[in-house]
Amino acid sequence: PVFRSVLEAIDRAASEYADFSIIDELLADGLRSRLDRTQVLQVVLVAIQMALGELWRTWGIEPDAVVGHSIGEIAAAFHAGILSLQDAIHIAVARGQYVAEIAAGRGAMLAVSLPESMLLERLGDAAQELVIGAFNGPRSTVLSGPRPAIEQAENLLTQRGVRIRRLEIDFAAHSPEMLAVLQPFGDAIVDIAPRVAKCPMVSTVLLEKLHGSECGPRY
């Protein structure tokens, strides 16, 4: 019930910015589901992370610090008390919308079961147009970049027997391909009002603890 009530509150807040219901999307069957759409999935992911954290708190679990990966930083900032529920979901909706409108169809991402050094060695010149989109573990690296370059890397690594998995998105997250999103996204969330952190949040951008004021639109 706690999880559901928080999701309902998030859904009401999202209705001011989004043209869909988070709860309806979660309950949709396979034929009606739109979770493969960036503008829907990103919002739903953030909402789930926000609701789960609030549920854990009712179990007496209080974090000593929070950290988030990619859009997870939105939920982390909410749980740190830096972002209000309204601001957090506003950011999530705007991010999803502009990524879908501007970056979608321009790139791809590939999860590779190799550490970065071995991955770049195996790819050689084929890595020139690619960047490391994420380090998910000692032997789990994600490549990001233009679709043709990702496809070339995919073929090369498959031939060499490396375990890979294409991510089910059509944009190159965490790469220079995303730069075009920054200005319109920043303009859309210019009215957010970050607050003083109640719980330390470790930034994956600045690699330090945030006090709260750093989490404005530019961040």
Describe the 3D structure:
- The model has no long low-confidence stretch (mean pLDDT 94).
- This protein is an alpha+beta fold and 219 residues long.
- The relative contact order is 0.15.
- 45% of the residues lie in helices and 11% in strands.
- The two termini are 34 Å apart.
Summarize the structure.
The chain is of the alpha+beta class and 219 residues long. It is 45% helix and 11% strand.
The amount of beta strand, in percent, is 5-15%
What is the C-alpha radius of gyration, as a whole number of Å? 18 Å
Low-confidence runs: none
Q: How many angstroms separate the termini?
A: 34 Å
Q: In this structure, how is the largest beta sheet organized?
A: 4 strands, antiparallel
Tertiary shape = globular
Structural class: alpha+beta
Q: What's the SSE pattern?
A: HHHHHEHEEHEHEE
> How many β-strands, per DSSP?
6
Helix content: 40-55%
Oligomeric form of this entry? single chain
* Count of discrete alpha- or pi-helical segments spanning 4 or more residues: 8
